[in-house]
UniProtKB/TrEMBL annotation:
Residues 321-535 form the Peptidase M24 domain. InterPro entries: Creatin/AminoP/Spt16_N, Creatinase/aminopeptidase-like, Creatinase_N, Pept_M24, Pept_M24B, Peptidase_M24_C, X-Pro_aminopeptidase_P. This is M24 family metallopeptidase. Residues 21-147 form the Creatinase N-terminal domain. Residues 545-605 form the Peptidase M24 C-terminal domain.
Length: 606
């Protein structure tokens, strides 16, 4: 199994660990400390040794933070974890806050007295993430103090070792472009930004640029390290020596120098003293490196990671790889859904049983390298927790009359998948069917959208929400995230969400389309397909070519939950055409019984 179901959090963590941190802060002369979720690479999914927020508070979600003061503390997360946060964090020790209601910097400004010293780890904050706290410090009169080593690391006695998975080449048949060509064009972009060299700190950027993959992060084939890419296309890769596989040096060639990761500071200082202009992404680069370059007398060019956009725009090999990965993955999910339809009504299937069975079907493809995130199998009230993670302590049986939400994905060498489906266990209520159909209408609306060049995902977000808004409902997560090519399942720079994002969608980008509805304490609904942004094409009678979306995810919808009368003729046509495509692509991969079941699921709507 790629996934385990042991509990990774404990509500007692706060009582055990908060006093240790406060004692250490007192020893080093600090009155408080900022604890983000991110690690030194500003990852969303972390290796075990970087789970500092979970160690301190018990909160195991993928987005959150904490602030510890001498006499009070607070833990923060977003709407996805509104239910989970109070379940995992001791409210007697931490004030619990939702970031859409209370921003961490606002809480700190209100609660940190003037003249106090508040520490932060400069390797865990980008300049962009730190700026609101700096503004609060100026307004209130407290001081932010960079601290290394991290005081949590100093008191975390049984802290796991840092990961050191071997780094291997990613085959050109899947990458679609050799790394010399990538380095040459990224180097030109560095020069165009009037910089001499760019510092890359995002593991996804390293993996894509050098056509390498690793295993330092759970559910993502990422190598942790740093890199420098020069304007002439030469590069230097900084990774722990234990990660260097036998084939890596020859794969990288003479134009890429290998160094130990702990040499990056010395190298940056030397470049700064030579007067080199160093490009950094202020949203992705730890502020430690910006401070280091500037203190050494160098110039910092603040710009976007030059790899981020090229990585997001998939080439022909990556696009075709994604299509094939989704067909293979879709067949595995169909096998699971048929199994679920037979076994779940018996009342004997648990959430863990379901997660194991689905992973087993993916393994049977013979191509699975990993899951792309811990499978979300939320039955009944657990489905209302958008990012629920089942453990042996929370596991429950799927019961007739409930909805079962399963959000899962696989990592294959040719692509990364992410799909959410909702199954009705037994007969669903009319309310469930109506709410599902509202979500479906939003999903279809976004899937059918046409839009001109220059359109951002932010501009499209309301399209998916409108059917629910008109009925008085909404959901507290984004509608779409970027997805890598055998990389992280959550990647920028583009997204589809309420939050402002100026990055225009471009042909070749892969995003999710996942509106949802969540009734706390009862059930959750989310319909998620991955979609590929298509080339702009003319519209008959129109004046401008328009881009659109190609569905990559191939899996039927839940017929029992669709209220056909709520769909327009165009929406019914969309469902029927989608199901016809699903059947045509998946049936050849299925046995007779699974294929017959799929035929029934994909029949035209009544």
């Amino acid at each position: 199994m790629f996934q385990t179901f042991d509990s990774v959090s404990d509500k007692s963590f706060g009582a055990k660990h908060l006093p240790l941190l406060r004692a250490r802060l007192k020893e080093i002369g600090l009155d408080g400390f900022l604890v983000p979720h991110e690690d030194e690479y500003l990852n969303e999914y972390l290796p075990d040794n970087a789970e500092r927020l979970a160690w301190l508070t018990g909160f195991s979600g993928s987005a959150g933070s904490a602030i510890v003061l001498t006499d009070k503390a607070a833990a923060f997360s977003d709407g996805r974890y509104a239910v989970q946060l109070p379940q995992q964090v001791d409210e007697d020790l931490f004030e619990l806050k939702m970031t859409h209601e209370t921003k961490p910097e606002d809480w700190l400004r209100e609660n940190a007295p003037a003249g106090t010293r508040i520490g932060y780890d400069p390797l865990l904050f980008s300049e962009s993430a730190l700026k609101p706290f700096q503004t609060a410090a100026v307004k209130k009169g407290f001081t932010l103090v960079p601290v290394r080593p991290n005081p949590i690391d100093e008191v975390w006695k049984d802290r796991p070792d840092a990961p050191a998975a071997l780094i291997h080449p990613h085959p050109i048949e899947f990458a679609g472009e050799d790394h010399a060509a990538k380095r040459a064009r990224i180097g030109r972009d560095v020069a165009e930004a009037q910089a001499d060299v760019a510092l890359l700190t995002s593991p996804s950027s390293l993996a894509w640029l050098f056509n390498i993959r690793g295993g330092d992060v759970h559910a993502a084939p990422l190598p942790l390290g740093r890199a420098l890419i020069f304007a002439d296309g030469r590069a230097e890769l900084f990774v722990h020596p234990d990660k260097v596989s036998a084939e890596l040096p020859s794969h990288l060639g003479d134009e890429v120098a290998l160094h130990a990761e702990d040499e990056i500071d010395t190298r940056l200082e030397a470049l700064a003293k030579e007067g080199k202009r160093v490009l950094v992404d202020t949203g992705l680069t730890p502020v430690h490196y910006i401070d280091l370059v500037e203190k050494a007398g160098g110039s910092v060019v603040r710009d976007v990671d030059p790899v981020a956009l090229p990585r997001a725009i998939k080439n022909a090999a990556e696009k075709e790889g994604a299509r094939q990965a989704h067909i293979r993955d879709g067949a595995a999910v169909v096998r699971f859904l048929r199994w679920l339809s037979i076994e779940a009504p018996k009342g004997t299937v648990s959430e863990i049983d379901a997660a194991k069975k689905l992973e087993g079907f993916r393994i049977e493809t013979g191509k699975l390298k990993d899951i792309s995130f811990d499978t979300i199998t939320g039955s009944g009230p657990h489905g209302a927790m958008a990012h629920y993670r089942v453990t042996t302590e929370t596991d429950r049986k799927l019961q007739p009359g409930e909805l079962f939400l399963v959000d899962s994905g696989g990592q294959y060498e040719d692509g990364t998948t992410d799909i959410t489906r909702v199954a009705a266990i037994g007969k669903p209520s009319e309310e469930m069917r109506e709410r599902y159909t509202l979500v479906l209408k939003g999903h279809i609306a976004l899937g059918m959208a046409r839009f001109p060049k220059g359109t951002s995902g932010h501009a499209l977000d309301a399209i998916a929400r409108l059917p629910m808004w008109k009925a008085g409902f909404d959901y507290d997560h984004g509608t779409g995230h970027g997805v890598g090519s055998f990389l992280s399942v959550h990647e920028g720079p583009m997204r589809i969400s309420k939050a402002p994002n100026a990055v225009a969608l471009e042909p070749g980008m892969i995003l999710s389309n996942e509106p949802g509805y969540y009734k706390a304490g009862h059930y959750g609904i989310r319909i998620e397909n991955l979609v590929l942004v298509t080339e702009a094409t003319p519209i008959e009678g129109g004046e401008r070519p328009m881009m659109g979306f190609e569905n990559l995810t191939m899996c039927p919808l839940e017929r029992e939950l669709i209220v056909t009368d709520m769909l327009t003729a165009d929406e019914r046509r969309w469902v029927d055409q989608y199901h016809a495509e699903v059947l045509a692509k998946l049936k050849p991969l299925l046995g007779a019984d699974d294929a017959a079941w799929l035929e029934g699921r994909c029949a035209p709507l009544d």
